[in-house]
């Protein structure tokens, strides 16, 4: 089966979100926050088209937007917000609508995209960027061997959870449940 790159992000945030996507699909309300996120992405794209590359510490390059990527080998596909191609390589960029420090789930989602870009271009990706929309800050993410291994293991865990149809425990941080659109389906959380 093909997973989505966003499943890596969701699984690391709360594995039940992925369970509710594949094992026991339930109706998911489209929230105002989700709609707003789409509008923000389009606005950032518009602004990015007019900018140079200084915030990415690059002297030149070409931006490519919303690229569909797929790896049969990893069993995962997704649409990457943006990537930059230049003489020194290619670099994935994900836009995130958060003013906080990016979470590990965001980091490993980007690492997964980097692995797909490597397959697409046939050359290694050393680092990528999380663009934090509210503060217009760019956060560098190193694509290390350990990070790649972690992504592969996460994909295996997701596939195993789906194959066994095992309902995962709730995340240790109850705050994650407060704004979750699946809250009605998790009777054991506050
Ligand atoms: S309500 Fe909590 S446990 Fe249930 S899916 Fe959402 S984050 Fe996970």
Compact summary:
The protein has 190 residues and is an alpha/beta fold. The protein has helices spanning 5-13, 15-22, 32-48, 104-121, 145-164, 175-178, and strands at 3-4, 62-71, 76-86, 89-96, 127-132, 137-142. The protein has one domain (3-185): Lambda Exonuclease, Chain A, CATH 3.90.320.10.
Provide an overview of this structure:
The structure is a single chain. The chain is α/β, with parallel strands linked by helices and 190 residues long. It has a single domain (3-185), classed as Alpha-Beta Complex (Lambda Exonuclease, Chain A). Helix content is 40%, strand content 23%. The chain has six helices and six strands, in the order E-H-H-H-E-E-E-H-E-E-H-H. The chain has helices spanning 5-13, 15-22, 32-48, 104-121, 145-164, 175-178, and strands at residues 3-4, 62-71, 76-86, 89-96, 127-132, 137-142. Strands 1, 2, 3, 4, 5 and 6 form a six-stranded mixed β-sheet that branches. Helix 4 links the parallel strand 4 and strand 5 (127-132). Helix 1 (5-13) packs across helix 2. The two termini are 34 Å apart. It binds iron/sulfur cluster.
Instruction: Give the terminus-to-terminus CA distance.
Output: 34 Å
Put simply, the count of helices is 6
The CATH architecture category equals Alpha-Beta Complex
Count of spatially separate domains: 1
What ions, cofactors and ligands are bound? iron/sulfur cluster
Classify the fold: give the CATH topology.
Lambda Exonuclease, Chain A
Low-pLDDT segments: none
**Helicity, in percent?**
40-55%
Query: Rg from C-alpha positions?
Result: 17 Å
Strand content: 15-25%
